Amino acid sequence: MANPPTFHHRARKRFGQNFLHDTGVIQRIIQAITPQQDQHLVEIGPGQGALTASLVASGSETHVIELDRDLVPGLLASFASYNNFHLHQGDALKFDFKQLADPNQKIRVIGNLPYNISTPLLFHLFSFRELISDMHFMLQKEVVERLAAQPGEKAYGRLGIMAQYFCQIDYLFTVNPGAFKPAPKVDSAIVKLTPHRSIEQPAEDIKQLEQVVKLAFSQRRKTIRNTLKSLFAADELHQLAIDPTLRPEQITLSQFISLANYLAKR
Q: Binding site annotation covers 145?
């Protein structure tokens, strides 16, 4: 593993910055990613280059997207001499990942994502899923638990259902606050998201699926007979082999897709 560079920069709260410095955690993340020379990697929020050093050293084409202009000089000083390093200063939430597309090589996305933008950024990336082979992210542990949650679990809800529609979700490992400077007040976790090559049960209208899931979880302690009564009669739920007395967290992704497709056809 390449040694991460060191340059001074005060973490900014408005950018949600917590810089990874624990070499053991860095090594474990790099082992999970296993970057290869012939790959195209995109790192969102490289910060002080803790992960970037090993990504560039692997020989892979490494693109980094950094919002904080003040971090750019340090990143350039550390990596500009490498022909395989490419820096994009800007907001990943507005970044057009199609500009990095290669017809022969899908991109791999990596990032220690600021907690305040993690959910909208994931959905932005889902819109480019056909260009992406996999994604490895450091996120707030609670967010990773929601992404990976299964029906019947407390964390199961809108985020996990929609993320699992687009991707296979693998919770890899937990990272404690001491691995960062400054230390956040919560645990973090590493998650791997692999976009499905094909969706076995496609939703005819993604917006319809999002609407049904959002409405179902608007009052998660109520039964779906009550939360979805504006969209479905009880006999329609029975017709779709869904028990109206179940709560939203007991409904599977497949059943939510059936509900959305029923509406789309109706």
A: no
